Amino acid sequence: MINCPFREHRLYIEFIKKNSKGSPVTELNDHYSQHLNYNQLIQQVADSFPEGPTCFDLAPLDQLHIGGIKASKQLLEHIKPYSHPRVLDVGAGLGGLLRLAASEQEIDGVALDFTHAFSQLNQALNLLSGSECISVVSGDAQLLPFASDYFDCVIFQHSLLNIPKPSEALKEALRVLKPGGRIVCHEVIKGQNPEAIEFPVPWAARAELSFLHCTQDIRRQIESAGFEISSCDDWTEQALMWRARQTGKEQSGQARSGLSPAAVLGNQFATMGKNVHQALQNGAIGIIELAAQKPQSR
Ligand SMILES: C[S@@+](CC[C@H](N)C(=O)[O-])C[C@H]1O[C@@H](n2cnc3c(N)ncnc32)[C@H](O)[C@@H]1O
Fold first, then answer.
1. Which domain of life is it from (predicted)?
2. Is the CB of 91 under 6 A from ligand 1?
3. CB 3.0–4.6 Å: which of 114, 134, 229, 244 could bond 109 by disulfide?
4. For ligand 1, is residue 159 a contact (CB within 6 Å)?
């Protein structure tokens, strides 16, 4: 079962609204859930993959970030040094990252997202794909429902971009990590030419829902939370090449199962993809991958 203490979705939203420290909860929930048709999607996945879907089968649906499953594979290199790590994915969406991690190594995974409809679908996809080692929790990154010093690794993949003040979420990440544990961020950042971005984009239908920060700002916030940064790489070039390939695939309708981000984000996804492509090209946005450690002693 999804670990959500509220039987009614309305009560969960009220709780999250009261405690979410400035996140535009209702608008974000609507943005991510208004086009989802749970029954239809589950049926479609079950019919297309009677043996159970692989991570690659689900990727057009559940890797909701720039760079797709290839970027996730690269990101997961950061958990490889741990044996049977406890991994928390914050803003997990439909959970593609942790299913991929579980297909590559033994993990204890927790996927947390505040869009409850995503958590429900994520849980169903875990069952269909046999990923029982992953728990799904609905909650807010800024108020994590976990004990301190528990996880080996906390991952933010395109989720800080929806959080007005990432410092609260970063402090919480530090708290729940074991000493020496690692935070990994794969995020969209504000580029040199931020005003050139056009909306809608996949993470926001309008400018007021998008919270991008420049690399320096993110670094500063991560360090002020108490982390020591070990690497920060610019992935913008490879993201641009990936987006160009995706545009080609989307136009030729290549996905065998018919699964696509449009099943989550609606018909506007074509415009969102085009806007992301342009924003990467004209320097409105960039992509970084950053890793940092919680110090052994504080
Ligand atoms: C662009 S999606 C990325 C999903 C997933 N990480 C991926 O890469 O496929 C951003 C996700 O962050 C979630 N999110 C936004 N703000 C959040 C918050 N304060 N706490 C938890 N999740 C949040 C949204 O509900 C959404 O699922």
1. Bacteria
2. yes
3. 134
4. yes
